[in-house]
Design goal:
single chain; 420 residues; alpha+beta; Rossmann fold; 7-stranded mixed sheet; 6-stranded antiparallel sheet; 42% helix; globular; disordered C terminus
Length: 420
């Protein structure tokens, strides 16, 4: 699956922009504040229906425009498709090949994996950010999992509305009956979300160990053996890293729990906190309260690892996510790397570049300059210059000059008529 064309209309700082993307590596280069991240945000929103950055709906509209649109053409094994995201009247709507659709469907059609400074900092941040790591795997893995997350979020909001009404003095029997009825469904969905998270983590952990080993192993031990006849690279065997997950439910490690254990734990905890929920007007039990811990050896990486080590663990997690996605579905997601090169040291940056070369995934990368020491095959890769909401293609001669303030530019390729 490849994203071949992208069109932005009145989105963020883009008035009207059309970009033709290459099937492998697409570098978007420019100074800060020029719109590089907005491009990746547009692709992310086509998949997830929401941004990875904070902001109100009106922030997506350029200069208080009445509406905005993001459109894309995607080529996959089943043919060519058109995806459109419209922003108008305070709402975001999506269509797939001209028909209105839900975001769960889009997540399955255009799965993305995001690398950002915020995601690399997930370990040292709060549990919300760490839960997002695992939920991003679910959202891109299947339409079923994506729908499950959205259904749970919807029923959580509804339950909280009823709890707030009661906390504010609503004593009607109908309100309590509605809460009791909703809580039954809430517990079932909460159990499904949690069990799905745990089963996915079990699949991720072996790949995460392998990726972490590649990133943390000394440089002398990571040399590759090149088989010139087969024109392939075979990595030296490296022992998996001593890392593991801890998925916490009410302070207990739930790795390995089955659905019955999860449901029983929720039910008991809900009995203990039911009166507190009614006082506070909020749901205190469920997957929205869980935490995902990353352990390096016997130590919680949040407290015992350096910032560089924490970033490396998340980098390994993202690479494991990509590997599991490919193994499960037989295709790679689109990779979005938003200014992550500046967050990594030279060794980790080099390992990431090696990985990107080996995979056949399509990659969109933003940076202030191009860090690339290998042969750059222009027919499958491209460098774009981004300046003040305008995207232009850097020529082959400019690729060598990137980072030195010497761009030779040509207009970005026009979007095909199918996206109109």
């Amino acid at each position: 699956m490849k994203l071949t064309h992208l069109r932005l209309s009145q989105f963020r700082n883009f008035a009207m922009q059309e970009v033709s993307l290459r099937p492998r590596l697409n570098f978007f280069l420019g100074a800060n504040g020029q719109g590089k991240t907005n491009l990746l945000e547009a692709v992310f929103m086509l998949s997830r229906g929401e941004s990875f950055r904070s902001g109100q709906h009106e922030h997506f509209l350029k200069d208080q425009a009445s509406r905005a649109r993001v459109a894309a053409i995607v080529d996959s094994e089943v043919g060519r498709s058109q995806l459109v995201l419209d922003f108008a009247d305070g709402r975001t709507s999506a269509s797939y090949d001209g028909k209105r659709t839900g975001f769960s469907t889009l997540s399955a059609q255009i799965p993305v994996v995001l690398f950002s400074p915020e995601s690399l900092a997930s370990i040292k941040e709060g549990p919300d950010q760490r839960r997002e790591l695992i939920d991003s795997v679910l959202a891109t893995r299947s339409e079923r999992d994506s729908k499950l997350l959205r259904e749970f979020a919807k029923i959580l909001r509804s339950r909280n509305v009823l709890l707030k009404q009661i906390a504010k003095g609503d004593t009607r029997k109908s309100t309590r009956d509605s809460l009791d009825s909703l809580t039954t469904v809430f517990l079932l969905l909460a159990t499904q979300v949690t069990e799905t998270r745990l089963r996915v983590l079990e699949k991720l952990e072996p790949e995460w160990k392998k990726s972490a080993a590649q990133i943390f192993v000394p440089e002398s031990a990571t040399k590759s053996l090149v088989d010139k006849q087969a024109n392939s690279i075979t990595a030296v065997e490296i022992e998996p890293a001593d890392v593991h997950f801890r998925y916490e439910i009410s302070g207990h490690d739930a790795m390995g729990w089955n659905a019955d254990q999860i449901f029983d734990a929720f039910s008991k905890r809900l009995e203990q906190l039911s009166s507190r929920e009614l006082q506070l007007g909020a749901s205190l039990v469920g997957p929205h309260k869980h935490d995902l811990r990353f352990f390096f050896g016997p130590n919680d990486s949040r407290f015992y690892c350096s910032q560089g080590q924490q970033r490396a663990l998340i980098l390994a997690f993202k690479i494991a996510q990509i590997s599991v996605h490919h193994t499960t579905l037989g295709r790679y997601p689109i990779l979005l790397l938003d200014d992550v090169m500046s967050e990594l040291d030279a060794a980790k940056r080099s390992r990431l570049m090696e990985y990107l070369e080996e995979t056949t995934a399509q990659v969109l990368i933003t940076a202030t300059d191009l860090i690339w020491s290998r042969e750059f095959r222009e027919e499958r890769n491209a460098v774009f210059a981004v300046q003040n909401g305008n995207v232009t293609v850097a020529t082959q001669g400019a690729i060598r000059a990137v980072g030195q303030g010497d761009f030779s530019k040509s207009p970005a390729d026009p979007l095909e008529d199918a996206a109109t």
